[in-house]
Amino acid sequence: MYRIERDRSRFREIVRGRIRHDLRKYLSSTELLGRRGDRTVSIPVPQIELPRFRFGDNSKQGVGQGPGKEGQPVDGDAQDGEGAGGAGENPGKHILEVDVELEELAEMLGEELELPHIEPRGDRLLSADGGRYTSVRSTGPKSLRHFRRTYKNALRRTIASGDWDPAKPRVVPVREDERMRWRKENPRPESSAVIFHIMDVSGSMGREQKDIVRIKAFWIDTWLRSQYDNLEVVYIVHDAVAKVVDQETFFHLRESGGTKISSAYELCLEQIQQRFRPEDWNIYPFHYSDGDNWSARDTERCVGVLRDEILPRVNQFCYGQVKSAYGSGQFKKDLDSSLDDCERLVTANVDDREGIAEAIRTFLGKGR
Amino acid sequence: MVHLENLNPELRPIAVEIEAIAKGAGLDFYEVVFKGYEARDVNGLAAYGGFPVRYASWRFGMEYERLEKGYSWGLSKIYELVINNDPTYAYLVRSNSLLEQKLVIAHVFGHADFFKHNVWFSPTERRMVDVMEAHAARIRRYVEAVGQEEVERFLDLVLALDNLTDPFLPLREARAGAPKRESRNLSDRARAAFEAATAERIRRDPAPSAYSGPSRPPTFDVLGFLAEAADLAPWQRDVVRIVRAEAYYFMPQRMTKIMNEGWASFWHSRIMTRAVAGPDEIVDFADCHSGATMAQPGQLNPYKMGIELFRHAERSGADLFHLRAVHNDTSFIDAVIDEDFAHRHSLYVYGKNPRTGRVEVVDRDWRKVKEQLLTSLAWGGLPQIELVDADHEGKGELLLRHRHDGRDLQLDSAAKTLTQLHELWGRPTHLLTLEEGNGRLLRADADGVSVFETDESGRVAADDDEDASRRAS
After folding, report:
1. pLDDT band at A122, cuts 50/70/90?
2. Is the peptide bond before A46 cis (omega within 30 degrees of 0)?
3. Which of A2, A155, A196, B105 registers the highest number of CB atoms within 10 A of its CB?
């Protein structure tokens, strides 16, 4: 059946082309969120269907079978009633979802935004990837005994000791003859990275602002995942106090209250100090806020923590300011003016969804 | 003599026995060749419409992807595929249990008999396996000559139009020449009545179009018209002919799905319970059989519907072999469904309640049920679209008319399709249809698609185009 495989790969090629073509659209929509598995993203592709003259929505009458009085809902109501024995021409009923490897999606993103690949630091971490059984040694469990090598040794010893009788070719291996398979470890450098997604959830961050953060976080994760073998993500939310939360909470939390950004930066620093040694980890904090901090004094404190503690430890610190109706946007100005000598700090404005792609390019375009 | 390839040799005597029983019961078929395949290969064959060799198209790949997903998630499994061909090919999944294989073999003989004797299949190509292969070879040559992209693009264009056919044409043509008889077939009568009822609402251009070959307008065989009359390169013309030939080959299967599955299920059930299944197998058989013929609430299973129709006809003393020979789904349902049947099988008409958005039981009147079934199955379940004029307003433009039966077209898809037709024809194309009872004229030209409101006669309502038109795409 190689023919059908060829048609399938052509189909997948077309789908990829379509996704690549629509990438900008995905970059500003929430469509792909929640569709990510471990290694793949499942993308719905309704638009690949061939156009046809087909019946539309008001033809939903059909014939069914079963109990129920007139006016009663049909069981399994939501079914798109394909009436009358599937006679309808309706291939568009199930929207096809196509699994695309994360790796591939990241590659498309990289091409679209012209992102440079990251030169990881801290390749000291070695991973024992299991290794392969390519050598032998004389000790080890019996279950790993290499029969041929053991027999050879035994044969050699038997002949050398003059016990060999060609008429009765019996070879009895003793303990010294035994050889066990042994695996050779292949140490290879492993690069690890941790992302901190820090979000301001104070009252001024509305639904749209959070959606923008979600979309951005999705694509940043996708890209960095493709650059590192091992990626951890830490989610921090803050209003006047900061806390570490899980992914679910991060994206759905609705909070209100004041804003004390320093609380988040201090928590981030604490996490770094406790869990992620900069020698071993590539560290990427991303902070999203509408730029409305509580007080100038707190902003000063943020600048201090950033300059003295966080920036020396991280690859890059990104601050994305999402425009909101209430935010003053002062925080970005403050950061830019007091830390303009720090090249590890990257700030960007995101006015609306269309600005997401540009902000991602600003953040990831440095190749750090 | 049955042929088995790549199947457990244990099955041979069983297949021979079942064949003898089937023949003894009166079934008659071409030689049947059973071939065993792994499940994924059967999915591949199914994606190709049952043929091992088709031309290259991503559409088959998409279908394969869909089948494979359904299979790997355990949502769907294909037990068998039967191909209308002489010899009849039947592909069996090798992993079927012995009992499943027995059932499937009996089922296959039912299909094989139906293919050979149902009148709608009589004009079909019986050497289709070879023909498909030849089609594939020709298209491969065109790919070599003009390039993959070019052929694929054109093929997609034509495939979007492959349901613009006349389901009744092959039989009519086959009978042309034979002495004209009163049409006994209900479908023909129904269609004549339908045509009379939908009085000409179209202004016909009196000037005949330049083209006067077969399938000239008015015709439903739009593909046939395009194949002859469109201004195409020779390879393109051949591609249209290939797509058309394949569409006509598959059309009778679309028109007789309920009958065909019903007939095969009727016979597998009878053969298994009366002869083949041992006492130790009967429960497994019942389980397997009911899985296939299960009636799900809110849905109609063609296997279930079909088998019950044949059983009902048998109870009323009808000649089943005659019924399976002369009917298609529409005329069969018209002939068999009566009040008793609708009641016995709790049939109802459902529809969406516009107020609540729920799908509800709308009516249990058996006449309404029957009417609904007939409407949805008529014309192979496809929208009836006729080419009424190939020289619209004397400008060589195409005018199509959708014969509205209460069901609207999906307008944006129709607009895109019309654009494809425009690209193929080279001049603007028009489609008359109704949207929620209001007349619409879609026009596709180089600038895209415009939609106009029309009055009852199909004329564009307002003179001022700027006001009347809105861009659809």
Report:
1. low
2. no
3. B105
